[in-house]
Amino acid sequence: MKSITILLLHMQHGGIEKQTITLANQLAEKYRVDIISTYSMNKEPAYPLDSRVSVKYLIDTKPNRDEFKAAVNNKNIFKVFKEGLRAVKILRAKNALMIKAIKNLSCDYVLSTRSEFAEMLSKHAPDGVITVTQEHLHDDSEKYVKYVKRAFSNLDYLVVLCEGSEQNYSKWLSDNKGIKIVRIPNILEEIPENSAEITSNNIVSVGRLHPVKDFGTLIKVFEKVKNSVPDAHLTIVGGGDEEESLNNSIKEAKLADSVKLTGMVSKEEVGKYMLSSDIYAMTSLTECFPMVLLEASAAGLPLIAFDVPVGPKAIIENGKNGYLIADRDIDAMAEKIIYILRQRDELKSLAINSKEMAKNYLSENIMPLWYDLFE
Prior knowledge:
Elements: E1 3-8, H1 15-27, E2 32-39, E3 54-59, H2 65-73, H3 77-103, E4 109-112, H4 115-124, E5 130-134, H5 142-151, E6 157-160, H6 163-172, E7 180-183, E8 202-206, H7 215-228, E9 233-237, H8 243-252, E10 259-261, H9 267-275, E11 279-282, H10 291-298, E12 303-306, E13 322-325, H11 330-342, H12 344-358, H13 363-374
Parallel strand pairs: 1-2, 1-4, 2-3, 4-5, 5-6, 6-7, 8-9, 8-11, 9-10, 11-12, 12-13
Helix pairs in contact: 2-3, 3-4, 7-11, 10-12
């Protein structure tokens, strides 16, 4: 039986973590699978893990970012110094322990989930171990491109999630004759038995409240929608640092009765919000392969998103399961949402197509691509 080792930062909540654990569970059907996780976070894995997958934690703790941030906010110089030293110590241990683990690898394949691990593999992977890295992020900055050229210099495979990423990396790594670029999308775990009701004027969006998700712009879009569709509602599902500023934006726009910020909720609750909505809207500044769009599609929701590089265009087909809108064109997005909400027949057609198209990403369709790589 072939063996695969996966390198992870931690096994708590996060898109990369969820997708990697899903992949590990599927791979365990055919291979011996081991996960090396840098941090234990003092918790059990956030997502169900197949009992056949073994886990080794390198550090039995978590980063002290919150403690350092609190010390800075409280202007406690002593604690800032103390937590700063502790952060340096944790960072050094993180790097040293992962490099040691890589040097001691005894497996057929090793899969990195972060570019920093990929760089370590390039430098320290033992002879005979086939090295694979998977990129979950989109960044076309000059600094990043220069970095990945160095970080991926001695790897065997790079797994990308969509066509746009494949084109970018093929161009950026054109001088790297040793690496093979393979396109394998993320896995959708299941298609819900139920579908979105499509009987209201509810709009939903899911994600951490972070500047890159640009929920502030979504609120501006919704303000215009509300003027034409008075009974429309917007639900933003997720928690994060921008909660206070977004609440202020909602109050300033006098939308407190129409816009809801749920905070962090369970996977089941996310599903309930989707099933009680008519449209999924995304205003992110950048996305690679947004799993939340797949999950919304599986729930039978039409998808509306700004046409940012790479991400949404990998999932949304204009006029079939939703619409791509010119990036940051608030008026155009609002107009399209208003149009769809008023055209109920088209709304229902988009919803049916959306659920059907999501089936392309079930494990039965995606795992053969991984098997091809490992075989």
